[in-house]
Specification:
The protein is mainly α. 66% of the residues lie in helices and 0% in strands. It contains seven helices and no strands. Helix 5 crosses helix 7 (171-187).
C-alpha cells in the first residue's frame, strides 16, 4: 500500500520561507514529533480491543520519540535555543473534520494520521536538498521514515473500514474528502511559519 495522494503540492512560498527560517521549522519539528508519539498512544487508549493495531502503534510511538530525541540533539548541535511556539492551525483544522460517530471516527483518525505523515514526508524531501549538512542529511533520512508511517496509518484505516460492522465504509472516498481539506489548509496564508503551515503572511507572493 502506498502513501495517500496529496491533492496539492507544498507552495513554493512556504518552501522559501522554511529554508530561510530553518531554526523555527526545527523547533516546531520537535513539537511535531512529540505530538506524533502522543497521537499514537492516544489511539491505543481509545481502541484497546484492537491488539494488532495497537502493537503497530506502540512501535510507531517509540520511533516518534526517538525522532524527538534526534531533533533535540540537532537543536543543541546547531545552537538553536529552546522557546515555546504557539501551535499552528493545521492539525486542529484536520481534527475539526473528524466524524463524531463510530466506526467512521476510527477510520478518520487513521486517515488523518496518514495524511499528516504524507505531508511530512513530502516536506522533508523538499527541504533536504536545500539545507546544508547536517540538517539536510537528517531530513533526507526522516523522509523515508515518514513514508513508512504514512503507509502504516493507511493500512490501519483500511482495516478499520473493513470490519466490525463497517463493511460499507468507503475509506478511499473519505480519504479524498480529508485530503481536499488538507490541501486548503496548506495553501491558505498563515500568520506564523510552522512545519505544517501554509505560506506565512507577508512572504513573497510570486511563485
Amino acid at each position: 500500500m502506498n502513501l495517500p495522494a496529496l491533492l496539492a503540492p507544498t507552495p513554493e512560498r512556504w518552501l522559501r520561507a522554511a529554508v530561510e527560517g530553518w531554526s523555527e521549522i526545527l523547533l516546531d519539528h520537535a513539537t511535531c514529533e512529540k505530538k506524533a508519539a502522543s497521537s499514537a498512544l492516544a489511539l491505543i487508549f481509545a481502541y484497546p480491543e484492537f491488539e494488532r493495531q495497537n502493537l503497530a502503534l506502540a512501535r510507531l510511538a517509540r520511533e516518534e520519540l526517538r525522532h524527538f530525541e534526534q531533533v533535540s540533539r540537532m537543536l543543541e548541535r546547531l545552537a538553536v535555543p529552546f522557546r515555546r511556539l504557539r501551535p499552528g492551525r493545521y492539525a486542529a483544522g484536520l481534527r475539526a473534520a473528524l466524524s463524531t460517530h463510530e466506526p467512521l471516527r476510527r477510520v478518520d483518525l487513521m486517515l488523518v494520521g496518514a495524511i499528516i505523515e504524507a505531508r511530512s514526508c513530502e516536506r522533508f524531501g523538499l527541504l533536504a536538498p536545500r539545507l546544508p549538512s547536517p540538517l539536510g542529511g537528517f531530513y533526507a533520512d526522516l523522509e523515508r521514515a515518514e513514508a513508512r508511517h504514512g503507509e502504516l496509518y493507511l493500512e490501519l484505516a483500511a482495516e478499520a473500514a473493513g470490519g466490525h460492522g463497517a463493511e460499507e465504509l468507503d475509506w478511499r472516498a473519505r480519504l479524498r474528502e480529508l485530503a481536499a481539506l488538507e490541501a486548503q489548509l496548506i495553501n491558505a496564508e498563515d500568520s506564523q511559519l510552522r512545519f505544517h503551515s501554509g505560506p506565512p503572511r507577508g512572504s513573497e507572493s510570486n511563485s
